[in-house]
Task: inverse folding
């Protein structure tokens, strides 16, 4: 199920600013910091995030044409803010939800499967922080 674009626009302007304060502390939530591919501006997007052995999977609820997905793919890197820590991530790849499910740690798989977003997931691996 893909969430309609009008919901994405509402969330970007209303919900996301409020959610940024909470998502780094909630289970299966985090804030992804990424750079705009056209503007060069830094953005912080609250998202559903699930751990893998060497990184994280982010569910893509608004489809792969979402700006945050395009930004991360273009930059090749992002930073996840979760539980008071910043984790540098790189090597993004867009995969199906089913393919990403195989990468998620066993303790999070059931929760991951409960979300109705089934179009895509973005996989990122942990990387060394920039010097």
Result:
């Amino acid at each position: 199920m893909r969430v309609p674009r009008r919901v994405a626009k509402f969330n970007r302007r209303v919900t996301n600013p409020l959610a940024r304060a909470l998502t780094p502390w909630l289970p299966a939530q985090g804030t992804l910091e990424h750079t705009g591919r056209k503007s060069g501006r830094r953005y912080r997007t609250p998202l559903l995030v699930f751990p893998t052995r060497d990184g994280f999977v982010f569910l893509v609820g608004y489809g792969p044409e979402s700006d945050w997905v395009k930004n991360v793919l273009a930059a090749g890197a992002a930073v996840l803010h979760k539980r008071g820590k910043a984790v540098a991530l790189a090597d993004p790849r867009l995969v199906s939800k089913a393919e990403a499910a195989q990468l998620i740690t066993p303790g999070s798989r059931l929760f991951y499967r409960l979300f109705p977003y089934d179009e895509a997931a973005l996989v990122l691996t942990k990387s060394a922080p920039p010097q």
Observations:
- The chain has four helices and six strands.
- Residues 27-124 form a domain with the Pnp Oxidase; Chain A fold (CATH 2.30.110.10).
- The chain has a mean pLDDT of 86.
- The longest strand covers residues 85-95.
